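Input record (one chain):
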Amino acid sequence: MRPHLLIRLLLLASPVGLPGQTSIAGEPHPLPPERPAAAIQLLGPEVCDFVGLDGEKGNWDLQDGVLTVALRDEMSGGNHLVSTFIFQDARVHAEFMLPDGWTGNSGLYFHGLYELQILNSYGANRLSWSEMGSVYRFHQPLVNAARPPRQWQTYDVQYFAPRRGADGKISTPGRVDAWLNGTAVQLGAEFGEPRSAYCTMLTLPTPYIAHARKVMDDTGKGPLILQEHLSPVSFRNIWVHPLEATGIRHEGADTPGLTIGLIGDSTVADTYGWGPALSYRLEGRAKVVNYAKNGATLQALSNRLDELLELSPTYVLVQFGHNDQQCYGLEAYERLLRSYIERIEASGAEAIVVSPVTRRSFGETGRIEPKPWNEPAKPFYATLDRYAQSAIAVAQDTGTSSIDLHALSVQQCNALGPQACSHYNAAENDRTHFSPKGADATAELVLGQLQVIAPTAFSEDK
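The corresponding structure, as predicted from the sequence alone:
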């Protein structure tokens, strides 16, 4: 059996440079505490290799090698700085300090598309992709390693840019390893197309940035952008070490040939869902790409399904219901689910319908039991039985494989009882989302069913 998620997270949170630590290329890579001779200094006591979005000298305050954000004059846009040095894959070192009394919101934007978040997250109990150490909109940090404001903090990053084919579409996802203050917060975190519409290299706010985007499309090399986000964050000692100078390659060793796509709502998503736990359990056997999103419905995530299918997954697990029941009735739910199945099968992948995992709402008898709708005028039910039944019925009618996660999770929770099951809650009164323990237990249910559906693909021996 694979290590449980909580144990895995503790192992991943090792400080930089421990023996045996490996890069995603399978080679040792303790990130250097000092700038290598081949690295390019972007910011230091005698150098500032950053310009404004127009290509001219920026208006941030620069004193003795410390660069401090100058806030924008208007609420729209952003007063970001752009490195004149461009790179493809690189190690990046950056030191920063958050001001006291502000949100501390800023970020390191790799190629102007992918943000490693900077934010005052000191003491935050709940991790998400908006907190310090996250790959914004993709991956939450493995642990909270943030320091308080008015202390210098350090990012050490190993960044691999996505690779695109002749058609301009991503053929190999990007990856990032990141250490915040010496603690691993991202290891082998993959990302595809940008998920924020406000990325500088998407909005192309000036001719200078438009030219930089064309150069990046032609060469694969782009800048590092320091984000201005309404908080006077300071930076110092930033350098970039192109990975072609180190011999570390983008391609990972022994990359699994099996790709599993996930699409669904927050109970599946990276933040508080079971998706990341399934990825850890399948490590070395399959690559899991998680396109689930908080607050999502079948209707709202239709375009994201298209993005997922572009990655040519072998299987796609579809789990919706928690939010759909608040937006439309069973007829629309079934119609949209059928559409997903048709599109997945047409792409050459195999769809697997997953009924919505239960809410852990116990009744007076100490059990989770079906309840009638609590607002008769709306298609909203107190429990998810009706939507779970519809999901399985659609799967049976279309000849699609299915996992009745709702029934399995109800059975699991009822066997545990309210007190033991409370440890699955993301927060004290959050009976929908998962703690690491709850995510791992739910992922175990899913994996057990996958081993029944496709024993050759998902057996422990793979």
